Amino acid sequence: MILVTGGSGYVGTAVRDVLNEMQLAHNTITRKSFAENCVEFDLLEGRTSELSDIVNAHSHIIHCAWFVDRDKYLTGEENFDWVSASMRLASVADNRKVKHFNGIGTCLEYKSSPLPKNIRSELGANSNYAAAKIATYIGLKQILEKNQIKFAWSRMFHVFGNQEHPKKLIPTINRCILHNEQYEFTASNQIIDLSHIIKIAQDLVNITAGEKQGAFNVCSGTAKTIREVATEIAGEAFARKYFKFSDESTARNNLAGERFV
User: Fold this and answer.
1) Backbone angles phi, psi at 131, to 5 degrees
2) Sign of the four-CA dihedral 26, 32, 35, 36
3) Residues 6+ apart with CB under 8 A from 210
4) Phi, psi (degrees; rounded to nearest 5) at 196
């Protein structure tokens, strides 16, 4: 039985969809129950004894829950609350019957460089979000591997599709096309790696179901600039008429990954 934390969130919802499609037994933890296989529990404030009872019924965990405020997720100190919550979850798993724990990381953990990121690339945080994720990775690794629980750390790159935030890249492009809006893309020479959320969720589930261990780059392995993505989707004629592309120094940080799943 697989336990999904943050099952009502963007990533967690997609993971649940994939688990349902694969007919894999699972439950999900959310602050408010919304389905039969949903357990209502607050990972930040709930009682440890209650969390222990929940975890006890599961053999695998996909830990998607995190601070998700779009406007301040990079800078918010709330990120560090989730380091503590993740350590508590791991400690409870350590005392129960969990065989595999899959934690969700980010490409922003990698130190800025002009090269694509592989799993051996140096880590280096430029935000509270990245720093908290690195701390979580290190802490989970220590707790889980010490107690012989198989541990995977899945660093996601750029994701699109299915109810993503309207301020993100693909929804912005689609809105401009639909309404003939003009838009300026700053840092349009930034190199990124885009994958559909369902593909990401499939990778996360396969890592868990296969009980894979180690750090993974969950991405497409394809590098494109923001300018290239916008032009491909909108078409060159539309892009020339409605889009302005401003290049900035962020291009020296290549945020494409060498796929490793």
Assistant:
1) -60, -40
2) positive
3) none
4) -70, 145
Which burial class, exposed, middle or buried, applies to 30 when counting CB atoms under 10 A from its CB (0-12, 13-18, 19+)? buried
Per-residue confidence band for 250, with pLDDT thresholds at 50, 70 and 90: low
DSSP-assigned letter for residue 157 = -
Which residues contact residue 144 at a Cβ distance below 8 angstroms, ignoring those fewer than 6 apart?
Answer: 90, 93, 94, 101, 150, 151
Q: List the end-to-end C-alpha distance of the chain, in Å, as a whole number.
A: 22
What is the signed CA dihedral for 98, 48, 135, 201, rounded to 10 degrees? Answer: 50
Instruction: Give me the count of residues in the chain.
Output: 261
How far is residue 67's CA from residue 84's CA, in Å, rounded to a whole number? 12
Average pLDDT over residues 204-232: 97
DSSP conformation class of 243? E
The continuous run of DSSP H or E covering 196 comes out as strand 194-196
Supply the DSSP string of 82-146, one letter for each residue.
Answer: HHHHHHHHHHHHHTTT--EEEEEEEGGGBPP-SSPB-TTSPB--SSHHHHHHHHHHHHHHHHHHH
CA distance 238 to 248: 22
Q: For residue 88, count CB atoms less than 10 angstroms from its CB and return exposed for 0-12, middle for 13-18, buried for 19 or more.
A: middle
Output Rg (C-alpha) for the chain, integer angstroms. Answer: 19
| pTM flag (> 0.90) | yes
Return the structure tokens found at 195: 């994958």
201: amino acid identity, one letter: A
Cα–Cα distance between 152 and 169 in angstroms, integer? 28
Q: Is the dihedral of CA 91, 94, 97, 103 positive or negative?
A: positive
- Predicted pLDDT of residue 251: 58
